[in-house]
Amino acid sequence: FKILFQIMSTVEFTNFKCTSLNKQFTDFEYCYLKSVNRSYKYLSLKVNLFKIPITKVSVNFAFLKRTNGYKPFLYNVTADACKFLKNEKSNPVLIYMYNIFRSHSNMNHTCPYNHDLILDKISNDYMNNHLTNVLPFPDGEYLLNTHWFAYGIKRAIVSIYLTLKH
Questions:
Q1: Number of C-beta neighbours around residue 155 at 10 A
Q2: Distance CA 34, CA 25 (A)
Q3: What's the pLDDT tens digit per position in 60-93?
Q4: Looking at the chain, which terminus has fewer C-beta neighbours within 10 angstroms, N or C?
Q5: How far from 125 is each of 11, 92, 96, 162, CA to CA, in Å?
C-alpha cells in the first residue's frame, strides 16, 4: 500500500497596526483586519498623504519571529523605494517583500507619489502562498514590521502579526 499525505499549512492574521508618526505629513484613513468567517481574513489600509508630491521614499522591511519576544528572523532590509521601483530586478529580497503587497496596492509605480496609498484586501490565503510556497517558513508566530520614510524622516509604521501552522 502507498499512503500519500499532503501537508497543509495555514496563515492566520492575528493583528494589524498602522501608526502615523507625523499627522501633518501622513495619516491613516483606515487600517483594519477584517474577519469574513473563521477561515478567511484580510487586511486593508488607506494612507492619506498631505504634502504631495513625495519624491523620496525609503522603507525598512523586517521579519521577526516570536521566541521570548519578537526577534529578527530571515530578513531586515532597508531600501530606497524610488530607486528599487525603477529597477525591480536589482534586489531579490526586495522583490520577495514587494510581491507580498504589489497586486493589492496602488504603490506600483516609481516616484513621485501624488495620491493617497491603498492596500486592498490582502487575504490570509494570499499570504499563505508567500510564506509556504514561494519561500517556506517554519511554524510560528511572526511579525512583518515595515517602517516608511519620506525625505529621510520616519513617517509611518505598519505591522502585520500572523501565525503559521503546518
A1: 22
A2: 27
A3: 989 899 988 888 887 788 989 888 888 877 778 7
A4: N
A5: 7, 23, 17, 12
